[in-house]
Here is the input.
Amino acid sequence: MRLTALLLLLFALNAGAQNFPSKPVKIIVGYPPGGSGDFLTRLIADEMQKALGVGVVAENRPGAGGNVAADAVARAPADGYTVLNAWHHTINLTLYKSTTYDHKDFIPVTRIATGPTVICVNGSVAARNLKELIDYAKANPGKLFVASAGYGSAPHLAYAIFESVAGVKFTAVQYKGGGPAVQSLIAGDTNVMFSTAPTVMGFIRAGRVRALAVSKPEASPAIPGIPGAEAAGLPGYESTFWFGLYVPAGTPAPVVRRLYQAAVAGLGKQEVKDKIALQGMDATPSASPEAFDAEIRAEAPILERIVRESGAKVE
Here is the structure.
């Protein structure tokens, strides 16, 4: 009897995978509108919709540095209709005292895009370059307020690593995403921001904030006119970020492959690459879901060490 029930279940799962997708797909991102996660989610949703032939909608579920979104997807049915767009789970698993999910709750699908953060200041800061900012911060520890997109975000790690390499200390102000953080910088409530490029590039071009460097040794072709950290006066500093798609553990392999193919088809288009480049990132689709999983596993101990050495914790 049990064998019959198991065979019926496997048949139903296989039939469901073959018919996938038969209804709209939802991609959840753990940050509010206005940041890089939101931009990439809406872009990839639009492209996957074209490839899958059903609606693909983006849904913002901000909170707890992305934990709210991750928990929602981890608990969702493993049928491919609920997808997560997020960074590496190791960051929050190390940063937060307890979480309701773990690596084993997800299957990686593909990386979407990779990029550095942009180090920028508002007009009230006298520093005209990165070296002057470091000199001022050393002479005035804690007096510069840095706007952060929240614990565990790419900007949070970027400024934590910066403090360690440069030997400075900021006073951090955490916001629920890059959009609110950059507004605080423009308003003068904060002085410095480490930002993902999509969040801040429009304000840089408009002259409302001043960019000093990108968070990698060399300049980024996707962010022209802004020097790399080494040329700007801080050798040895690097902090990049990426976003990628995940589905709940147990999702049938054919469904994972179908989602992967739809995402990679969009990321392979030149116009999509150009849109991502305009936001200061590079399209970086994975060679396969298995390759993405291997990359995540290899990167995990490095990110865990960085978070622990930064001293950041969230109770």
